[in-house]
Amino acid sequence: MPEGGPARLHSGSVSKGGRRRRSSSIIYVEPPETIEQLSDQVALPNLNANWVNNKGAWLIHPVCIAGLKIFYDTIPGVSQETSWTLTNITYMFATYLMFHYVQGIPFDFNSGAYDNLNMWEQMDNGDQYTPSKKFLTSMPILLFLLSTHYTHYDLTFFVVNTLALMSVIVPKLPSFHRMRVVMPWSQTIEEVDGEEPS
Fold first, then answer.
1. Which of 5, 56, 102, 155 is the most buried (most CB within 10 A)?
2. Measured between alpha carbons, how far apart are the two ends of the chain, in Å?
3. H and E: helices and strands count for the chain
4. In the structure, what pLDDT confidence band is assigned to residue 191 with cuts at 50, 70 and 90?
5. What crossing angle do the helices spanning 155-169 and 80-96 adopt, rounded to 10°?
6. How does it sit in the membrane (predicted)?
7. Contact criterion met (CB below 8 Å) for 114 and 46
């Protein structure tokens, strides 16, 4: 056993912030907040995620879907089936990017308390099954059903629409709360935290 025993091995596998160093796993679970982060989170309202509970925030989703559908219908040579599928894919990609990919907030008023959380995890203080989260989960499902119906249940369009739906619904599930998929070519945890990997 190397000099220093298990303590030396342990100190080499955990960074200063308590986060695990590089691993062969592509799944990473975000650790719970510290007491300092929790107190920073409750000090001020989270302007990044509170807008989803405001009037009109739910209305923008059907309006955007209708706008996308009209946009794709105006492109010459695009069939109705392709138009519905493109509308579905565009909406799913935009909502995944907005709610599940981007982490942190654009404002710096809470000492970085939300830096490691995406918008879905910030909404309603992380509570599950709130009205906003139920609505935002039902919209992709409704759009999937519409696009599947109007593509006349064609197998190719069905597979594409199903994959788009799964890529948005799976991160919304409570069992995937605070879970990240880390690709091997992406930044390591230490690079994100500003530390040099060893």
1. 102
2. 21
3. 8, 2
4. very low
5. 10
6. Multi-pass membrane protein
7. yes
Token pair of 25, please? Answer: 């796993």
pLDDT digits (tens, 9 = 90+) for 32-88: 778 877 777 777 777 788 888 888 899 999 999 999 999 999 999 999 999 999 999
Quick check: helix, strand or coil at residue 76?
Answer: coil
Report residue 148: phi and psi, to 5°. -70, -40
What is the residue-wise DSSP string for 21-62? Answer: ---S-SEEEPPPPPHHHHHHHHHS--TTTGGGGSTTTTTHHH
Exposure of 120 in the CB half-sphere (CA atoms within 13 A): 27
pTM: 0.77
Q: Please calculate the CA angle 42-44-48 and round it to the nearest 5 degrees.
A: 100
Distance CA 61, CA 67 (A): 10
Sequence ranges of the domains in the chain = 20-193
Alpha-carbon span 91 to 12, nearest angstrom: 43
- Tokens representing 21 are 């160093």
Sign of the four-CA dihedral 115, 117, 120, 125: negative
